[in-house]
Specification:
2 copies of one chain form a homodimer. Chain A has helices at about 5-15, 30-35, 75-85, 135-140, 145-155, 155-165, 175, 260-265, 310-320, and strands at about 40, 50-55, 60-70, 95-100, 105, 170, 195, 200-205, 210, 215-220, 235, 250-255, 280-290, 300-305, 340-345. Chain A is of the alpha+beta class. In chain A, the strands form 3 sheets. In chain A, strands 2-3-12-10-11-5-4-13 form an 8-stranded antiparallel β-barrel. Chains A and B meet through loops of A and loops of B.
Chain lengths: ~350, ~350
């Protein structure tokens, strides 16, 4: 069982030449590299935030690009974030908390003090129910709403069949992920089902869908329930995926470039608060990319999670084929299948 | 289902006062804090490496403490590491690779070049079979070897019953971890079973046991198979647990203090190699703690993974009870249950 790839190569030799597979199946990076241009989906500049930090100690610029979640997820907080960016509210803010194997948090370092920066008017107060979307994703995509469809949503198996027809959530059966065999049990532990929707890792149960906390996920800082935060104070995950936060806090996006400018910052002990303004990393600006001059707008693409290329990529992550590996895990958790993202060529 | 802790509090009010539970169940940190002294197990200074890096840019000292795995795991490489430390081989080495969401790697920056530092004589060449231990852990603990016991090892269910009797691997049933319901299916995807052995996260199947790759895990760098590395080049995990490396590479230990000195280092692009010696972080010394003067030997303890306190801690990680949480995940993966470790009081 150990050297499974050597075994595959030997089997190929016994086949007629025309039927031979390549000696080594393509690795995940090779699969992504060979994706046709049509498999890459442009990310709208209206879904990107460009964060410019103060230059580092060597004077090198630091830019971090955040991608925002698409509907139906977290749109209340994301609407607030777009208002905050439009108002240039974050300019002059800071990264004020970096806790190892947990998060880098940013916004107003004076939050919860008398010096707190006033928030712009008109921010929404978003309820906890928005942590989970009960919008049927295939309906969301098709923009078709009818009572009959809603009934079907609650008949889960019927919905799954429909989802395939309508091209809803790109459901990777848990068996393919190696998470269950012949039952429909507990999935990966944190959710009965996981999959991808328009380029995002999503978990679900019979009640709805929610975005998962993985490395580089952006979420909304908050105080204790029922507060859900405004979107002014944000964190980026810089360690073990904290899946226990799923459904406890608003996921609004992810860092798609420049995460190293957050993950390599000095850690502070305890909960990671620097408690010394000299240690903060100043934020010069955070801008909605669509509000930048056209020439300055970053252009990114993600690999369509509905494409065959992506399915091949998932399989290559589940059973690694790089020459380094001698043993294929036969499994991958949703946070270990990062959706490929690139600068538009 | 959402505010399950509020529900628990209301239920308590209906009980007679003497039978009342605390309004809020204890959180994982509270459980650890209240552990009796007898639940803490001393870590031998012969199982600790003390790595001293060059001071940081502000002149502050940087020390990283590594704990080595106990038998029966990875002892060939660990024997080599003790020889390398005794020979002061790492002194003058460097951290020469830091790849975001992957590893910080250290050893000889001239490895694989004509300037490579010669290794001390007498290092073992360890085979790939040592990635997995087929030693029955309860037998290892009891130091009892007999043909009858070995036969029982392969009768898995019989072994599980025995393991409880003999106090072998501290098996956390996967159902308790939320990873399966009524089958003995695929476990957490990467392994049919996970648990703890003498303070370490372990995965297993019917063929044996292996240590898992979690945040701060230390492993042995290697070239392609059949090379397994000597233990001279080491990496620390600084991102998403790379469980796909399990059984593909030797796990030898973990960072138990000072991981931030590795995880906050500047990232290099691609595979993380700095390719510029000026960017390396110099290693001043790596010493086996037992070879330091008695007064300089760090004293650490881990929370016994056989204790009731630990089992309570696991349950509190599975269903978070901190006031911050409104939704309990009902599950935790093995890398999301870090074994509590502290400086000896």
């Amino acid at each position: 069982m150990r050297k499974i790839f050597l075994g595959a190569a030997l089997a190929a030799i016994a086949l007629p030449l025309s039927a031979q597979q390549p000696a080594r199946p393509r690795s995940a990076p090779e699969i992504v590299k060979s994706a046709p241009a049509t498999d890459w989906v442009s990310i709208s500049p209206d879904d990107l935030l460009v964060m410019t930090l103060a230059p580092d100690a060597q004077g090198k610029p630091r830019q971090v690009i955040l991608q925002l979640l698409p509907p139906p997820f977290s749109q209340g907080w994301i609407g607030n974030m777009k208002k905050l960016a439009t108002a240039h509210w974050w300019d002059g803010g800071a990264i004020y908390r970096v806790q190892d194997n947990w998060v880098a948090q940013f916004g107003d370092p004076d939050e919860d003090t008398p010096q707190a920066k006033p928030l712009p008017a008109g921010l929404a107060t978003v309820p906890e129910s928005e942590y989970v979307s009960d919008i049927d994703l295939y309906v969301a995509r098709e923009k078709v709403y009818s009572p009959a469809v809603w009934q079907k949503f609650y008949a889960k198996r019927a919905w799954q069949a429909k989802a395939k027809l309508y091209g809803g959530i790109e459901h990777i059966p848990l068996e393919e992920l190696g998470h269950s065999s012949d039952n429909d049990g507990r999935g990966d532990g944190y959710a009965p089902e996981t999959g991808f929707f328009e380029g995002w890792p999503i978990a679900s149960n019979s009640e709805g869908y929610w975005p998962t906390h993985c490395y580089a996920t952006i979420g909304v800082g908050r105080n204790n329930s029922p507060d859900t935060g405004t979107g002014a104070e944000l964190y980026a995950v810089i360690g073990t995926p904290p899946r226990q936060l799923d459904r406890n806090i608003a996921v609004v996006g992810r860092v798609i470039e420049g995460i190293e400018h957050l993950s390599s910052l000095p850690r502070a002990p305890g909960n990671g608060m620097y408690n010394d303004k000299a240690k903060n990393t100043p934020i010069q600006t955070i801008r909605l990319a669509s509000q930048l001059p056209q020439a300055d707008q970053p252009r990114f693409q993600y690999l369509s999670t509905q494409s065959q290329t992506f399915r091949d990529y998932v399989q290559a992550r589940i059973n690694r084929r790089d020459s380094f590996y001698i043993y294929a895990a036969g499994s991958a958790d949703i946070c270990n299948i990062p959706v490929p993202i690139r600068r538009a060529p």
